[in-house]
Design the sequence.
């Protein structure tokens, strides 16, 4: 959440900052702001809402006023304080000599605010960030050295931060530091960069230095100096950035979300390449460092993740238990971290995160590492903080996902989990026949998803019909129970319709009280073990006059009449069906939100990377 970028060099800083921020906008869109180093002063420009508002404001300025060799920029996802101009970053000290941008949360800000208020500091915003600006300025007053001041100040802070700081007395440098929030330095030629995500700077450089927790960096146009927390000069590895600049284009689609849903078949082909040849060959996962002996030792698996990634983890429970006979627990990271951590060297902990930056998941993984569990990370960002904590890595390789609502990354997580489950079962010599079926289904999956995508028109018509409903229920059982949860999440996050997913068998234990003709129920019923059971739950819903939508590969003639609408998917083994069913739900959510005119790619209040607890 929040995106930060910094630049120093020979280009006009504002161009690099605005370009960088445009690639970070998925991290927040409550406000945007930049600070530009001027002649003996720092010029600040801020605007409320999306970045385009700031760009429009800047167009009205005299170009001379915004020309600068150095600057920092920010896009905000509000944590402390409303999305107002006063709360927008950058924040400055009272004399305006020091200014900074921040990503994270300062937990003890009230205590520091009280201390600084007693020293005569006045506050102009409701943010935790402003406290840091004043505190560093206060320390600067004592030391007259920005590195020392940042070091002294951050030692007094609790929480998470990535800061980029400028002082008018040190116009040829920017100081940066981080703790539990991402920040990297881009190394250029006669110019250097700072960013919370490589996408902001990948166009300008392929060399990056990742800052460790509590390190402090000072960048000038020609130098990068990194200090540890005792201010001893240290050297970090310069790494090659892993991918080419991405053309963040919608490729003719109205929204990134629709483009990303349509990319799903190719995403799967990409993942499978080199990992499965055919159903008779073994799965090859080169970055999973678990041999037969280690896998046989594992007596428990814990999957930790948030949101959509958590739902992928729930599918993982069904499939991994089925194929390996190892018990699997799945938990949201935010719950996992505030109770006793029970894990040991026989535990395999799987962290799933598209961004690899989710603060709660990072904290959870750090906790289990202390217990010597083997940590396997499934992520779309192999350079991320989370990937760096892994003992084994499954890079889902879905390409940059721009839409805030996760779609192709979910499918890629599912496929990666199937591969892992098969890989482990093969090492344990388990269930050969079933493994062949699943491998075959995975190889067929791209074509089957293409068949669902080609049915988009029908799903669009159904979406229009249901777009005026205020509530929605999704039901399913077994391995598709997570599909009901994920389908409901997709709908609520982009259309703001109140949607809830239930295990179908739970309907009669409470939720059925809500059913009447104003409540659509979407039921996922694959022809498999639980088909008849879910059908009985559909009958119960029908008897309460709920509108019924069936998503299935076949519905018996005798049951067809209870459904208001049926969306058919290709035949598929139950175990792999969540990937097909969710494609239907993603399209339905997309078309409903689109029909309602919602901001599909950037839904209100959400951010793509949740880097605060
Ligand atoms: C929903 C969505 C979120 C994320 C969650 C975890 O569409 O995108 O629920 O899944 O914030 O994010 P990652 O996977 O980056 O850890």
Sequence:
């Amino acid at each position: 959440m929040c995106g930060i970028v910094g630049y120093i060099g020979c280009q006009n800083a504002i161009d690099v900052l605005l370009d960088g921020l445009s690639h970070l906008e998925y991290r927040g869109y409550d406000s945007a702001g930049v600070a530009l180093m001027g002649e003996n002063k720092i010029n600040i420009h801020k605007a409320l809402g999306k970045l385009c508002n700031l760009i429009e404001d800047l167009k009205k300025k005299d170009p001379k006023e915004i020309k600068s060799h150095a600057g920092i920029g920010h896009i905000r996802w509000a944590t402390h304080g409303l999305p107002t101009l006063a709360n927008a970053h950058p924040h400055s000290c009272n004399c305006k000599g020091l200014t900074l941008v921040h990503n994270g949360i300062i937990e003890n800000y009230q205590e520091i605010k009280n201390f600084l208020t007693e020293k005569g500091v006045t506050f102009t915003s409701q943010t935790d960030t402003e406290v840091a600006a004043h505190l560093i300025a206060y320390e600067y007053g004592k030391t007259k050295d920005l590195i020392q001041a940042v070091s002294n100040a951050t030692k007094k802070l609790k929480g998470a931060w990535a800061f980029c700081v400028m002082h008018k007395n040190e116009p040829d440098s920017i100081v940066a530091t981080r703790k539990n929030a991402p920040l990297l330095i881009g190394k250029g030629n006669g110019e250097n960069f700072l960013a919370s995500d490589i996408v902001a700077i990948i166009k300008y450089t392929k060399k990056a230095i990742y800052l460790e927790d509590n390190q402090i960096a000072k960048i000038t146009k020609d130098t990068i100096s990194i200090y540890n927390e005792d201010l001893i000069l240290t050297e970090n590895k310069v790494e090659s950035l892993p991918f080419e600049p991405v053309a963040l284009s919608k490729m003719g689609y109205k929204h990134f979300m629709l483009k990303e849903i349509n990319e799903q078949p190719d995403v799967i082909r990409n993942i499978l390449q080199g990992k499965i040849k055919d159903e008779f060959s073994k799965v090859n996962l080169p970055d999973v460092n678990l041999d037969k002996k280690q896998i046989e030792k594992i007596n428990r698996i814990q999957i930790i993740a948030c949101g959509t990634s958590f739902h992928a983890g729930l599918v993982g429970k069904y499939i991994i238990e089925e194929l390996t006979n190892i018990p699997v627990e799945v938990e949201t990271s935010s719950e996992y971290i505030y109770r006793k951590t029970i894990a040991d060297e026989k535990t395999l902990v799987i962290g799933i995160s598209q961004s690899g930056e989710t603060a709660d998941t990072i904290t959870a993984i750090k906790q289990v590492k202390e217990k010597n569990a083997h940590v396997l990370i499934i992520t779309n960002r192999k350079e991320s903080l989370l990937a760096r904590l892994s003992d084994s890595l499954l890079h889902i390789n879905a390409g940059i996902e721009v839409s805030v609502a996760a779609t192709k990354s979910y499918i890629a997580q599912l496929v990666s989990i199937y591969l892992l489950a098969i890989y482990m079962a093969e090492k344990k010599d388990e269930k050969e026949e079933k493994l062949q079926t699943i491998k075959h289904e995975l190889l067929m999956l791209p074509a089957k998803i293409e068949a669902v995508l080609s049915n988009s028109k029908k799903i669009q018509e159904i979406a229009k019909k249901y777009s005026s409903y205020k509530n929605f229920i999704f039901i399913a059982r077994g391995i598709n129970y997570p599909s009901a949860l994920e389908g409901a999440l997709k709908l609520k996050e982009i259309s703001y319709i109140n949607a809830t997913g239930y295990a179908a068998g739970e309907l009669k234990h409470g939720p059925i009280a809500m059913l009447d003709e104003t409540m659509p129920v979407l039921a996922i019923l694959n022809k498999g073990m639980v088909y008849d059971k879910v059908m009985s739950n559909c009958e119960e819903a029908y008897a309460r006059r709920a509108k019924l939508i069936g998503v299935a590969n076949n519905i018996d003639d005798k049951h067809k009449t209870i459904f208001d609408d049926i969306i058919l998917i290709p035949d598929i083994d139950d175990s792999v069906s969540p990937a097909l069913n969710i494609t239907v739900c993603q399209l339905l959510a997309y078309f409903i939100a689109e029909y309602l005119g919602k901001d599909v790619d950037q839904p209100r209040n959400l951010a793509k990377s949740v880097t605060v607890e």
In short: The mean pLDDT is 94.
